[in-house]
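Quick one, probably user error.
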């Protein structure tokens, strides 16, 4: 993957100080964690509050130390229910701006909605970037468009769709193929330097937003589109359906975390069956892409020991007849082999 800074990211350039605040667990710091995983060369340090219960394993720094280490931008690297900025975070953002850094955030609550933050940016000549401010896009039209596209889908939220999509991009580029990650969430946008925060788009414009993000291409390459949510999640199925229709995918990769007890945030909803999930996603995708095929499963086995992880992959593979790999443990070479054999050039 390229380490160049995309032009779209000119207002929030690396290197980054990753703000963890008082994140209560690993998942709460998923934005910072994704940046360290895929753009480690951009991450000079982390800033943690006194009650922070996680780390992304880069040096702890205060604002002055981070600036001295070359940090140009502080990334608000946390996610919370409702995407809110608390009083402590607001004070820390003002301090980062006063230290001479830009600030970028992927939370639903905008930096620009706080006069204290806006004033601090103005007096210091710094930039603010709200990743969840979507561009204006048209309503989707479903017209066939040139190019090849893959979409990752999931049994639930936070099953590794972004990780799988980035791993597919890396594997395909290593083989000399034209392949581009298309980000649809805040962490992916920070990693790619561009994208669309699809969960902040008005419902009527979701499919059009993905058509805009992944327009026709004529170079024989692939757009690899980051999925969101799940068709089986009562809270987020709408955005998942809009993605399926707007992506017009030639291929799907199903992402799943074995052993997860229930849908994220909904203990009264069990996870759906893998076969049921795949069939539902293929059926929905056929509205705009009648020839869509499934080419693999990406399993998040981070909570399993190596033997159990290998067994989970074998079981999924036997069930669906598709290659199943953990992108972090195993890579995605066999999934890419299946993709290239299943979709005509």
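Nope, works fine. Designed sequence:
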């Amino acid at each position: 993957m390229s380490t160049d800074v995309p032009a779209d990211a000119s207002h929030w350039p690396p290197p980054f100080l990753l703000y963890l605040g008082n994140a209560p667990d690993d998942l709460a710091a998923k934005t910072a964690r994704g940046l360290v995983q895929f753009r480690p060369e951009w991450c000079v340090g982390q800033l943690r509050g006194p009650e922070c219960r996680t780390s992304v394993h880069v040096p702890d720094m205060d604002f002055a130390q981070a600036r001295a280490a070359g940090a140009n931008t502080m990334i608000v690297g946390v996610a919370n229910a409702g995407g809110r900025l608390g009083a402590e975070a607001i004070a820390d953002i003002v301090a980062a701006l006063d230290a001479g850094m830009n600030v970028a955030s992927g939370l639903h609550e905008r930096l620009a909605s706080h006069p204290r933050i806006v004033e601090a940016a103005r007096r210091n000549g710094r930039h603010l970037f709200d990743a969840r401010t979507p561009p204006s896009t048209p309503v989707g039209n479903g017209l066939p468009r040139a190019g090849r596209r893959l979409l990752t889908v999931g049994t639930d939220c936070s099953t590794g769709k972004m990780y799988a999509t980035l791993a597919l991009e890396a594997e395909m580029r290593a083989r000399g193929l034209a392949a581009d990650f298309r980000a649809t969430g805040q962490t992916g946008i920070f990693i790619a330097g561009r994208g669309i925060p699809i969960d902040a788009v008005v419902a009527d414009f979701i499919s059009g937003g993905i058509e805009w993000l992944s327009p026709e291409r004529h170079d024989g390459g692939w757009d690899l589109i980051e999925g969101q949510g799940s068709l089986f999640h009562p809270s987020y199925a709408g955005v998942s359906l809009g993605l399926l229709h707007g992506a017009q995918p030639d291929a799907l990769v199903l992402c799943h975390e074995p052993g997860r007890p229930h849908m994220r945030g909904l203990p009264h909803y069990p996870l759906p069956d893998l076969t049921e999930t795949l069939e539902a996603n293929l059926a929905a995708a056929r509205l705009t892409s009648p020839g869509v095929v499934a080419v693999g499963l990406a399993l998040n086995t981070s909570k399993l020991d190596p033997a159990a992880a290998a067994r989970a992959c074998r079981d999924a593979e036997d069930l669906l007849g598709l290659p199943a790999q953990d992108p972090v443990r195993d890579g995605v070479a066999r999934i890419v082999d299946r993709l290239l054999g299943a979709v005509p050039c």
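The chain has two domains: 7-130, 148-342.
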